[in-house]
Amino acid sequence: MRKNVIVVMLDTLSFDYLGCYGNKWIMTPNIDRFAREGVLFDNNYIEGVPTIPCRRSMFTGRYYLHAKGWSALDIDDTTVADLCWGRPIDTAFVYDSAPLRLPKFGYARGFNKVWYIPGHETDHNYFSQDRLYHLKAEDFIEENVVEEAARRGEEKLLGPMMEELDFHLRESQYWKSEEDHMAPRVMKAAVNYLRQADRNKQFFLWVDCFDPHEPFDPPSVYDPNMKCPYDPDYKGKDMIYPLWGPVAGMYTDAQLHHIRMLYAEKVTMVDKWFGYLMDQVRDMGLEDNTLLLMVSDHGHPFGEGKHGHGIVRKCRPWPYEELVRAPMIMKAPGLPAGKRVDGFTQSCDVAPTVLEWLSLPEHPEMTGKSLLPLAKGEVDKLRDFAIAGYHRYSASIITPDWSFIHWLREDEKTVTESRFQIYQSGTAKTMDHLPKSTKLWGSPELSELQKRVKEMAATLDEEDQWTCTPGSLVELPERDMLFDRKADPFQLNNIASKEPKKANELFQQLREFMAELRTD
Q1: Between 152 and 375, where is the model more confident?
Q2: pTM of the model
Q3: Domain 389-519 in CATH 1.10.287
Q4: Which residues fall within 8 angstroms of residue 391, CB to CB, at 6 or more apart?
C-alpha cells in the first residue's frame, strides 16, 4: 500500500482555544471531530520558538534550542523533503507563512511543488503600492492606546505598526466574503494539489497556514452586518494589530477581551476550513492510506493571569506555557480513535514520524522520535521531560510535576538586551543584496527609529533575531523560575525561593541535556 502524509500547520494556535483541549465556550467542531477520530497529544511542547526555529525543528527532526535560532535553513540542515529526493514520492508545500520565504531562508527547499499565497503578516509590503480607498488604519486603533504609547515614550513604535496595518488593509479592503481570507485560500490551494496529485505515487504534503496569526481580522471585522460572535455587544474599534508590549495601562479590560475574542473568531474560521480540507481528503478516498497530522508552532500571550504574563503579541523571549505548549493531533489507519496521550512530545518529533510512515530511514542526526509507537500504545512515553525556549535568551524544562525557566545570564550570551525591528538583525546578511527601498517597510530611506534600531543591532550576528514582531524587546526577568504544574498551571507563582533544591535539580538536568545536545 502506498502511504501518504499530510501535515497541516496552523500558526499561532493556542491549545486552550480548542474545545478538544478543554475550552468550553469556543466553537471548533472540526478540530474537535478530528481529535475524536485520532490521537491527541496533551503535553506537546515547542522546543525552539517562535515561527522559524519551530519549522526548522519540525522539518529536520532535530533539537536546535542550543544551536540555532531565527535564521536561514543551512546546508547541514537535512529536511524530510531532502530525504524524499530521488524516490517515487511527490512532495508539495502550500503556504502563506511569509517568514519562511524571507530572503535566502530557503524553507521551501527540496519540495517538488510549491504554492505561495502572498500578503500575510511580514509580507504586507506585497501590497504597499496599492491604493487604500475603502478603509483607514486609524479606525483600527483606539486613542487611549496612542496616548499611552506617547506617555511611555514609545510613540515611534506606532509607526511600524500603523504601516503594517495600512499595507494589510490595502489588500483586505477588497475582501468580499470569508473565502477571500488567507486560511480559506491556503486550504483551497491544498485541495487543488490533492485533486491533481498522481495516485500512482506516494505524496508528502505540508500545508502551512499562517492564520490564526495576527492580524486578528476574522469576517466580522469587514462585514458591517456581522458582530463578533464571542463579543457581540462590544462598541469600540477592532484592534486587529494590537500594539505589542505590556498591557497594563495600555488597554482597558473590555478592549483586551475584545482582542481575545477576535482571535477566537479567527480560530473558529480556521477550524471551518481545516474541516473543509479534511472533508475533501475523505471524499477523495485518501483516509485509508494517509497519515494526517495537525500541529502548531506556538500559542499567544493575551494579557495577564490565565491569559499570559502581562504582554500581548510575542514581544518578549519568554517561554511560558501560553506560548510554548501547542496542540498536536494525529490520525492514520491503524491508530486508535479518541485517544489522549500524556507523554511529552516535541516539535522535533514531526520529521521522524513522517519518515516512519513513508517507510524511509531517519537521518542519523535526528534527535526527535517517531510518535507512532506512542500513539499505538507500544510505549508509554518517548522522554521523561520536554524543553522549550528562545535560543540565546531562555530555556525551560517541563516534567510531569514541575516547570523550570532559566534566563540566560551575561556570560551565557553575547547580548542581553536590544530593541530592534523585524529583519534588522536576524536577516541582515540575507538581505544585503536587496535595494534599500525593499527593506523593512518599503520606505526608500530609513526612519530615525529604523536607523537607531540598525545601529543597536549592528553588532549582533544573524542568530539574534528571535521573533517576527517588530519593536520587540529582549527583557529578561532577573531570577530563574520554578512552577508547580498541578497547583499552578498558568505559571503565576514562582516558588524557586521556596523550593531551591528542586529548582537546582531541574537546572542541572536542563544544563546536562543541553550539553549533551552540543556534543551530538
Answers
A1: 375
A2: 0.91
A3: no
A4: 48, 53, 64, 65, 66, 67, 68, 69, 70, 463, 466
